[in-house]
Amino acid sequence: MIIVCATDDNFIQHCSIMLVSLLVNNRDVEIFVLTEGLKQESMNIVRTEVERYNGIVHFLQVDSNEVEKFPMPQDAGLAHISRATYYRLLISDLLPENIHKAIYLDCDIVINGPLQELWDINLDGYALAAVPQIGCGYESERLGYPIEYGYFNAGVNMINLDYFRTHNVTSDLLGYIHDNYDKIIYHDQDTLNAVLYDKTLHLLPQWNMTSSIYVYQLDKRGDSRNGKVVNAYLKEKENALKYLKNPIVLHYVSKPKPWQKGCVHPLYDLYYRYARKTIHFSAIKKQFPLSRRWAVLLYGIKERLSALKQRVHRTDFTRL
N or C: which end of the chain has fewer CB within 10 A? Predict the structure, then answer.
């Protein structure tokens, strides 16, 4: 199984915990870490953690000139994102040509089960396999493709490297960024959706349980146009509920994340369960219980007020 992730020195803790969670639950894993250049100390941390669990790790250098011109998010809620997020657009050029497919994983993820079923998915005719974000299809209108295709989260991708190479997909992705710089809000994720919306196999949420799965009134989320439901996501909602309390892949998309003050995610503890399996980060302190309860209470009130506002001011946009 080939796994790819991207990091810089600032995210080594979370990258390492993600990789340990992966290796605790999966065998015969070869990992490629994409970076513009890590300190030797950071590489030693990753290598030590991976090799303790019998994984193999390689570090691949990304040319800074390739990514320095890419648009970075202006939204304060996306301030945690670095240029490393764009590295995945270059994977087909960076990995050896004898590797035909790979699973890309963001570093704010915990792997809580085996990925073999995901690895075995047939990608013939597709560039990617990814999980659509329930109720986010309206992003398609900003990016210029039909809402019927929805909008997928790029934090977990099964990548058909042969398709990328044969169809020069990397060139198309970089071209889209150049021509649509002002449209891009969600960095590489926007780019992948805009270029590959009709070449992406949609997966069920079990392979990427994003934070939006855990929001209030998930059952009422969907994509609408002119008041009519276009995508109801019935299978996705059923699958999400099945894996809600025991996810295979848990993705802490939204801030604050488990290691940040005020995290309200109901599975906040899962991050620390795997942190304790590392040697470098096993002493991380959890959030003070009282402050966390207060944050959860305030967030719950905010969610319910948002749902009420949605009823009063009807819109095709799903409020988070």
Answer: C
- Separation of CA 159 from chain center: 14
Q: Specify whether the backbone of 173 is left (phi greater than 0), alpha (psi in -120 to 50) or beta.
A: alpha
Are 185 and 73 in contact, with CB atoms under 8 Å apart? yes
- Tens-place pLDDT, residues 110-150: 999 999 999 999 999 999 999 999 999 999 999 999 999 99
Give the confidence band of 284 by pLDDT, cuts at 50, 70, 90: confident
pTM of the complete model:
0.87
The alpha carbon torsion through 91, 92, 98, 100 (nearest 10 deg) reads: 100
pLDDT digits over 222-265, tens only?
888 877 888 999 999 999 999 999 999 999 998 888 888 877 88
CA–CA dist 212, 21 (Å, integer): 22
Beta-carbon contacts of 161 under 8 Å, excluding residues fewer than 6 positions away, are 91, 92, 95, 99, 100, 101, 102
Q: Which residues contact 245 (CB under 8 A, 6 or more apart)?
A: 267
Cα four-point dihedral sign 235, 226, 193, 195: positive
